[in-house]
Specification:
The structure is a homodimer. By secondary structure, chain A is an alpha/beta fold. Chain A folds into two domains: 254 residues, Crotonobetainyl-coa:carnitine coa-transferase, domain 1 (Rossmann fold, 3-Layer(aba) Sandwich), CATH 3.40.50.10540; 76 residues, no CATH class. Helix content of chain A is 40%, strand content 16%. In chain A, the strands form three sheets. In chain A, strands 3-2-1-4-5-6 form a six-stranded parallel beta sheet, sandwiched between helices. In chain A, strands 7-8-9 form a three-stranded antiparallel beta sheet. In chain A, a hairpin with a 5-residue loop joins strand 7 and strand 8. In chain A, helix 1 packs across helix 6 and helix 6 packs across helix 7. The radius of gyration of chain A is 26 Å and the shape is elongated. The two termini of chain A are 33 Å apart. The interface between A and B is large, with 150 and 150 residues. Strand 12 of chain A pairs antiparallel with strand 6 of chain B, so a sheet runs across the interface.
Chain lengths: 396, 396
């Protein structure tokens, strides 16, 4: 077993689409698990999801299925479902966001494989559908996102709930499989997208704050809640995010800007102590107003090394990341020759074991491993697979 | 071993603060692991982080450390560090976002415990600091978040990178521990917040799009990229998010709104086919304009059941979640008697094993388990712990 691939030996059958469930499977595949994504003949509903490459192929699908194997079968036919059930029985682990078809429910599968680990993603726990955008609308974040003077909700661009949910699925599946390693018992795991978002809002204190505190949290624009942090314009027409979380950060910011006298006078005038995070937050507009001219008089380059321990970064857009070397110079990124799309820089796993960065592996072509997987897991001969193909049970 | 707590038997020493690393530990604690957070005497830098309860205690700290045990020690003294090293040696797993102090580096600890699993969170991989807000600024998302007519970056409110990073830490730690269960070998795991964000941008196709496509993705306001989705105002002064991802969703939206003739005429006039997601996205302003009056003439309540398979949800704020029963009625949430804060509804784990929702468990009081843990893990008598306390090596 290779130290750099800690999940070698783990095998997962994935029946999934869109972001969360495929990301959960890919996260395991990137750590060495054999993850076999099974799709309906012709592909799932996410096969053509935007963004598209110039070739017309989905960059989204390719990005979320890297390093998996792909099998296609007719899940609408009893023979296709029997085949998938046999694969799951052999592999012993299934990851899915699909409504269970006949023969593929947890109870059906557990009868064939008593120690099955079955991980299922739901929208709402009661089975009602939900997606990242609807969950996000339901849970309050759009009401506190966006410019302070904006009226109405502001959606996030990042599908953060899908990402969190995919990672929770990977955590849960590994926890269940560990339990099986130790006790021999499998089990059913369910995760609802809505629950993941609600749990996160609770874990971060948003829900308790709404229950216990008289004043609701306002929409803060680019200000950071509870301390001093905001964006500033610089002399070269750029913007930087600047953030203070400790007294050391604050002292360094005051020293760097040469505004110690002004800050001391302000503290006397306001009866404030800017070594306290609460006072930095309360007087954020004042502090920002005092600091703005200092940033406006400096270029981003001149800030480099000038701010001590202060947390700061320049805002960049995705095009700039390609131009400025962020992608090229990152050890996370590797050149990936993705069939149907062409070479580009793609991320390997952000989990680095023993200092070894694993490179990105291409996503499969749809159905690419059908023959290989049926041969390997079910000992089917090429003749048997060819017969199933002629019957329309498995794909090209 | 209880089926509902799959990680029973796993023990983790956590040296951490803020969001990502504590969330990683809490995720394991919620699944039955014994997670012991060790803090400097008096608490870490996150002990008073906002939001605060009316009592002045941090809801953030309480929310992110539920179900752990708490030990305090003087990490600045050799005796305190020796104690923590002894705890880690016994437990065999450490999770940290702290810079390693003398005696607590990976190499130091591995000498004492050759099969150690050591999981460390970094800002940047090269050791430079980074936090959610600076990583977010660096990576392009603020440039495409917010109202279409807004100029300048818009930060997210949710610290999405911290959340993702905490979950990646939990995944990586479980993967490393599985590897140890199977092979007997421990290892060092590192995860950088910046890498997690960059990997996510890559996995979702944003980076490949910027490299391969001529047109950069625009700021889309509340529109969904690549299909038809946006927010609408309703007759009762509310807003709803409405989203179409499949032809079935589209057909149901057209049928519900009674606009089939208009849509067919539009398709002829524009040479478009709204069964295609690309055409729905291209003509999103037109489609939104046509559908707006229909939504504006209806209350949110009247939409319930009227939209068929269409994905939609009403926007709510955190205060409304408390009022409208979302928290009270959710099986995820349970009444938590949190010392120092008082009873409130808090989330249990969103990972549900065997259909059993585990309830939330309170966060510890700072240092609450010092005596208990030193007795249990290091077989120290109360007299010995009292002596260490008198010497200022461990906390109250």
């Amino acid at each position: 077993m290779n130290d750099a691939a800690p999940l070698a030996g783990l095998r997962v059958i994935e029946l999934s689409s869109y972001i969360a469930s495929p990301l959960g499977g890919m996260t395991l595949a990137q750590l060495g698990a054999d993850v076999i994504r099974v799709d309906q003949l012709g592909g799932g509903p996410d096969l053509g999801r935007w963004p598209l490459a110039p070739s017309g192929r989905s960059l989204y699908w390719a990005g979320l299925n890297k390093g998996k194997r792909s099998v296609t079968a007719d899940l609408r036919s009893p023979a296709g479902r029997e085949l998938v059930a046999a694969l799951i029985t052999t592999a012993g682990i299934v990851l899915t966001n699909a409504a269970p078809r006949p023969g593929l429910t947890y109870d059906d599968l557990r009868e064939r494989r008593p120690d099955l680990v079955y991980a299922r993603l739901l929208g709402h726990r009661d089975g009602r559908t939900a997606v990242d955008y609807t969950v996000n609308a339901s849970l309050g974040f759009p009401a506190i996102t966006g410019p302070e003077d904006h009226d109405g909700p502001v959606n996030h661009a990042l599908p953060a709930w899908d990402v969190a949910c995919g990672l929770y699925l990977a955590v849960g599946l590994l926890a269940a499989e560990r339990h099986r390693l130790v006790t021999g018992h499998g089990q059913r795991l369910e995760v609802a997208l809505h629950d993941v978002a609600l749990a996160t809002a609770g874990n971060l204190g948003y829900l308790a704050e709404a229950q216990l505190c008289a004043t609701p949290r306002p929409r803060l624009g680019n200000h950071v809640f509870g301390d001093f942090g905001r964006d500033f314009a610089t002399a070269d027409g750029r913007r930087v995010m600047v953030l203070v979380l400790t007294t050391r950060h604050w002292r360094d910011l005051v020293a760097a800007s040469g505004l110690a006298e002004v800050m001391a006078a302000l503290e006397r005038a306001l009866g404030a102590d800017f070594l306290r995070e609460a006072d930095r937050y309360t007087y954020r507009e004042t502090l920002g107003g005092v600091l703005s001219p200092w940033f406006a008089g400096r270029t981003v380059a001149s800030l480099d090394g000038a701010l001590g321990s202060v947390l700061w970064a320049e805002y960049r857009d995705f095009g700039e990341l390609v131009q400025d070397g962020t992608l090229r110079d990152s050890p996370l990124m590797g050149e990936l020759a993705q069939p149907g799309i062409g070479p580009h820089l793609a991320p390997g796993p952000p989990l680095v074991f023993g200092g070894h960065q694993l490179p990105p592996r291409p996503a499969p072509e749809l159905g690419q491993h059908t023959d290989e997987v049926l041969g390997e897991l079910l000992s089917m001969s090429t003749t048997e697979v060819a017969r199933l193909r002629a019957q329309g049970v498995v794909g090209e």
